[in-house]
Amino acid sequence: MSSPRPIRFFHQGRVQSVEGLPPQTTVLQYLREHARCAGTKEGCAEGDCGACTVLVGELDTDGEAVSLRAVNACIQFLPMLDGQALLTVEDLGASTDLGPVQQALVDCHGSQCGFCTPGFAMTMQAVYERHQACGTRPTRQDLADDLAGNLCRCTGYRPLLDAGERMFEQPVRTLDRAPIVAALRGLRDDPALHYEARSRAGTPQRVFAPRTLEELAALREAMPDARLVAGATDVGLWVNKQQRELGDVILTGRVEDLRRIDVITVHGQGAAPGVMSANGHLSAGPAVAAAAVPAPTSRTTLRIGAAVPLEEAWAALAERVPALRELWLRFASPPVRNAGTLGGNVANGSPIGDGPPALIALGARLVLRLGATLRAMPLEDFYLDYMKNALRPGEFVEAVEVPEPPAGTRLRGYKIAKRYDSDISAVCAVLSLRLEDGVARDVRFAFGGMAATVRRAAKAEAAVSGRAWNEASQAAAALALTEDFTPMTDLRASAGYRQRVAANLIRRFWLETRADAPVAAASASVWQAINLQRSVA
Fold first, then answer.
1. Alpha helices (H) in 135-274, listed in sequence order
2. Cα–Cα distance between 26 and 72 in angstroms, integer?
3. Residue 496 burial (CB < 10 Å; 0-12/13-18/19+)?
4. What are the residues facing 383 on neighbouring strands?
5. What is the reported pTM?
6. By CB count within 10 A, which of 283, 308, 483, 509 is most buried?
7. Diameter of the chain by CA atoms?
8. Rg of the chain's alpha carbons, rounded to an integer?
């Protein structure tokens, strides 16, 4: 275990070295209370409003370029910045020398009370930098998607979208990344972070940020009660809203092997769930025979590391299964997807999470690691009860493996919420089957929001599997949902509404996927008109 050291990151043109602050200090608190950078605002303190949006810069693996991503400063802990760059609205330009984003906001009257403006400006700067680097221009709907995590309560979005278009008409002026690259190269020589300070309650607290899988596995095994934190998009709310103390923390975001997306080829009948050695090879476990799911010859599997940001993970999933694109765009907001991870979303185990229904419908499995030993299990077997999972003490999620859907698979993802953008699901359903001469095979109906865990609708699947996919079978499946689920009533939806909408989604799925005259997607969703306006990139 390395010696404690300060948190070091690039901000305001130089490397900052911070020590003595409580480890649960958020980036927003640091900016406003310690760095005296008050341009970044606090609105909701839970990652919903976007008033605190900042840019975090990270050096690529070659050390040649910096990638920028917009995140919510209110739910990012200061130790998570170690080795990275922090950019705020103060970095965009002075009042006498506005940058293109700022000038466009002025010209288009994109600010009224001004409270949300810094967050909008930072998100727009990220969009501007990305498109200037690619030589592209976003459509108006692309801009709306990018701004889905920034809420405005007085100006209205028309002038903000006007400004988003206008900023590309200004003389090109991107952020100077050379000083950032030079600083981050130097920070690479720092040892892995080990930070110690007293919490706000006065108790000693430690934060570790290992850089290799082996270091993480050893730490986790030695400290099974430590809190694993990836993007803090949920844990941040525990601190801000519930005033919880996290105790010792292990950050997973610096482990490069957990941030990879690989495509692997599975030959023959595929690998069954079992015990995996540290070199990645499976050996048979006692429950392998019962749990094995044969795979066709030479199918590919998407292996997503547990620390891959949600935005990148969903992009990879949607590229493979385009029907998931709308679910991707409606999953939380861009700043949350830039910070949160797919592994964290899965391990969190929320019954209303949008990731697990899609992954379960696709037949995903988890790779779990304890020390040097790895084991694999279907994701659907991971959840034991409300917020309880199958992880053993000292074990963690290393990767999510998503097999390629068999040829002929028909899959749809549906999210029912009170708002279209940036909202929590009342019901999330991802439904999949394969038609073989009009008969339903490989049926997988996964629902979130219907039980204490995300799970498959076994009775509904049985009502369809091996039968003609027609109105009678879909009606039988919809009826069987009453045996599968007894949903609860809460602020998002009543139990009756959830039961009714779940049945309706099965019918909609049949209408869209039936062999005879399927309903076109543009006719099944009012939002398809919006989807047609989105650029392909």
1. 140-146, 157-166, 178-187, 213-222, 235-242
2. 10
3. exposed
4. 389
5. 0.91
6. 509
7. 71
8. 24
